[in-house]
C-alpha cells in the first residue's frame, strides 16, 4: 500500500472550513484514498473515500488532484466536536491492509 | 446490531494469562479485520479474513496471537501468555466483499490491560 504524508497538527477556528492536506505520491491506479478520524479513545470513524473524482457527503468533501498524488479533506463548517486525529489512508480494502500513519491532530478552537 | 460489536469493552488480566476478544461484524459483511492500537500510537494491522479464503496473518506480532472466524460471522482474537506489552486497544472492523473501495467500519474496541 502507498504511504501517505500528513502534517502532524493543525488549528481551525470554529465555524470556518478546515482543510486537511495529504500527500500520496506513490499511489497506484487501483488504490483509493480513505479518510478516517479518531476522537479520543473511540474507534476510528469513516468519513469519506474516493478514487479519482471529488466526493462529497454529509460530513465532508474530498478533493483529489488530477494526478492523484495528493488530496484535501474539507470540513466545511468546523465545530468543537470535530477536534480529532484525522487519518488519510491509501489502499484497497480488498487487501485488508489499510495502513494507518500518525495522522493530523485537528484542534478546533472557539 | 447496526455496527461492529466488540466484547469485552474492557479487560484487565494478569501477566501470563490467556485472553479472548470477540468481534461481531456488521451483518452481511464478509471481510473482517483486527487492528491493535497502543496508547498514543497509530493502528497496527494484525489479521484479515475474507470469506472462505485463507486469512492474511502477516500482521500478527508473535505466535502467542491467533484469530479464528466462524463462517462469515463472529471472530475471536486470542492472546496466550499475555505480556505487559500486549496492553492496548484491540479494534475489529468489517466491510462488504467485493471490489476495491468498500468502506471499512470499526468497532469501539476492546481495551486490554495486562498487569
Alpha-carbon distance between the termini of chain A?
A: 37 Å
Mean pLDDT of chain B: 91
Radius of gyration computed on alpha carbons of chain A:
13 Å
- E-strand count of chain B: 10
Instruction: Evaluate the radius of gyration of chain B.
Output: 14 Å
User: What's the helix count of chain B?
Assistant: 0
Strand content of chain B: over 45%
Counted by DSSP, the helix tally of chain A is 0
Shape of chain B: globular
Helix content of chain B: under 10%
Low-confidence stretches of chain B: none
Q: Can you write the helix and strand succession of chain B as a string?
A: EEEEEEEEEE
Q: Which chains have the largest interface?
A: A-B, 26 and 27 residues
Listing every helix as H and every strand as E from the N terminus to the C terminus, the arrangement of chain A reads EEEEEEEEE
N- to C-terminal separation of chain B? 32 Å
Task: Give the overall average pLDDT of chain A.
Answer: 91
* Biggest β-sheet description of chain A: 5 strands, mixed
Largest sheet of chain B: 6 strands, mixed
Explain what the structure shows.
The complex is a heterodimer of chains A (110) and B (115). Chain A has no helices and nine strands. Chain A has 110 residues and is mostly beta strands. Chain A is globular. The model of chain A has no long low-confidence stretch (mean pLDDT 91). With 115 residues, chain B is an all-beta fold. In chain B, the strands form two sheets. In chain B, strands 2, 4, 5, 8, 9 and 10 form a six-stranded mixed beta sheet that branches. Chain B contains no helices and ten strands. The mean pLDDT of chain B is 91. The N and C termini of chain B lie far apart (32 Å). Classes of the chains: A mainly beta (110), B mainly beta (115). At the A-B interface, strand 3 and strand 4 of A face strand 4, strand 5, strand 8 and strand 9 of B.
Amino acid at each position: 500500500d502507498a504511504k501517505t504524508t500528513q502534517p502532524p497538527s493543525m488549528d481551525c477556528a470554529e465555524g470556518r472550513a478546515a482543510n486537511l492536506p495529504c500527500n500520496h505520491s506513490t499511489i497506484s491506479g487501483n488504490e483509493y484514498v480513505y479518510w478516517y478520524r479518531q476522537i479520543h479513545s473511540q474507534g476510528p470513524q469513516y468519513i469519506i473515500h474516493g478514487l479519482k473524482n471529488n466526493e462529497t457527503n454529509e460530513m465532508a468533501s474530498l478533493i483529489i488532484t488530477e494526478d492523484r498524488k495528493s488530496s484535501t479533506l474539507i470540513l466545511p463548517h468546523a465545530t468543537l466536536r470535530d477536534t480529532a486525529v484525522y487519518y488519510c489512508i491509501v489502499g484497497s480494502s480488498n487487501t485488508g491492509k489499510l495502513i494507518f500513519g500518525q495522522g493530523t491532530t485537528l484542534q478546533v478552537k472557539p | 446490531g447496526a455496527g461492529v460489536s466488540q466484547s469485552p469493552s474492557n479487560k484487565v488480566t494478569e501477566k501470563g494469562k490467556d485472553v479472548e476478544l470477540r468481534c461481531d461484524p456488521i451483518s452481511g459483511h464478509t471481510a473482517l479485520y483486527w487492528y491493535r492500537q497502543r496508547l498514543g500510537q497509530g493502528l497496527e494491522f494484525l489479521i484479515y479474513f475474507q470469506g472462505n479464503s485463507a486469512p492474511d496473518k502477516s500482521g500478527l506480532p508473535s505466535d502467542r496471537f491467533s484469530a479464528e472466524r466462524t463462517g462469515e460471522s463472529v471472530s475471536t482474537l486470542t492472546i496466550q501468555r499475555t505480556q505487559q506489552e500486549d496492553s492496548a486497544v484491540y479494534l475489529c472492523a468489517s466491510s462488504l466483499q467485493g471490489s476495491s473501495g468498500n468502506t471499512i467500519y470499526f468497532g469501539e474496541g476492546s481495551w486490554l490491560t495486562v498487569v
